[in-house]
């Protein structure tokens, strides 16, 4: 089995698209076309298993919406981790009603303003590192005993995403609606997995995906947040290995047991 990994545009080592540099708004549809380009370049033939977390899962849905024949002809399995098919504008991020309503009103304008002053904002993020670390931990993890090294890894990963990139992508999440596109995955084995304490893409969104794909395996991981694959890698890897074995991509004995737990000893 061969795996292909890539950074979404504007993230990690991937550059911003030419259209973005000209100020054209980014959307999930573009990410679906990016995924098609990656497949064409790196895996142009043979069966595929698609695995996506959060925006990655949304990208898979956009791929199916635009290239349904690719899903029908080549995809033999799909994994949606901590993601959503739509209605992300209704997420309350664990805030009370009054607070979330205020956030929804001002956040788009605030992000645009911050994105236009990216250099100043990045200096501010570094100056308030402790506060930022607390926010990352709250919105990334569901348990209290996450390995500090894992928590710091998450901080570094999120810190590496410039604020203007966050501002550019935010409207794409609220516009995302791919419930109908999910039907294209109905004919292949599907795993839907989420942390039960996810505040970013709440577990109800994964349950919604499972309702649209009634033959899918739904796994809710206790005491896990949005970065469930970092918080409980043994669970995620074991369920992924099981699906890969079912579709013939790996030997049936490929599982990890309790290997990879991020819980601190004695936690």
Describe this structure in words.
The protein has a 4-stranded parallel β-sheet with strand order 1-2-3-4, sandwiched between helices. The chain has one domain (1-267): Rossmann fold (3-Layer(aba) Sandwich). It starts with 17 loop residues before the first helix and ends in a 21-residue tail after the last helix. 50% of the residues lie in helices and 9% in strands. The protein has helices at residues 18-21, 28-42, 55-66, 68-74, 97-116, 118-127, 129-140, 148-159, 163-175, 203-212, 228-231, 233-246; strands spanning 48-53, 75-81, 190-195, 217-221. The chain has 12 helices and 4 strands, in the order H-H-E-H-H-E-H-H-H-H-H-E-H-E-H-H.
Question: What is the gist of this entry?
Answer:
This protein has 267 residues and is an alpha/beta fold. Helix content is 50%, strand content 9%. Helix 3 (55-66) crosses helix 4 (68-74) and helix 5 crosses helix 9.
